[in-house]
Amino acid sequence: MLDHINLRNILFFDIETVPQQPLFTDMNEELQKLWEYRIHRFKPEETPQNDYFWEKAGVYAEFGKAICISVGFFTQADPATNTYQFRLKCFASHDEHQLLSDFLSMLSRYFDISDKFFLCGHNIKEFDIPFLCRRATILGLSIPQILDVSTARPWEVRHLDTMHLWRFGDYRNYTSLHLLTTVLDVPNPKDDLEGSQVADTYWHQNDLPRIAQYCQQDVVAVARVIQRFKQMPLLSDEQIVYVP
Q: What is the pLDDT of residues 83-99, one digit of tens each?
């Protein structure tokens, strides 16, 4: 599986997002009305508006923001033994414009060669990539070619989504990364946070470094899943290099 793709041509990434404001009532009145219209079919009647906003706003690009993007890529450490290093870098900031500018500039400079590199993550086709493209557009930032699929033909899209790969053509199936790593016996060290705790960790605890570490662990997990798909030895913790 994926025999035609070189590990060193894949950029693995993951993002973390939160509501733009800690409270529903912190938004302006127009956005409050638009939020209520957007979610009125989904919100249970007994759930307070502030609670539902807190729980769900981070997944909507119109009402959420990106606070962290972690990336990782393989480099060949020893050609003689075909061993690898995995280099991890994290972009994290309260300033979303700066965060996205830094990430998109990195993509444009090093990975925007459409016929060579791939972007890889879990559920990136339905969440991470659309979210980043929408936020970049809202903030007036240019979208690199490798991200922009608006005019691309299906065979030109260079996105590897481990959730879609695991579907094997079954479009009804949703499998979390946690479940996938468990059934594939892939080490997943995410034991500090859960996705539902990210907003609280950001807005109430002001602990962005903790979120960044959590985000990096997802990138490593996805890289190991791809290795399992390719029937390769799994990346060890000693092979991971953290890049400032």
A: 789 999 999 999 999 99
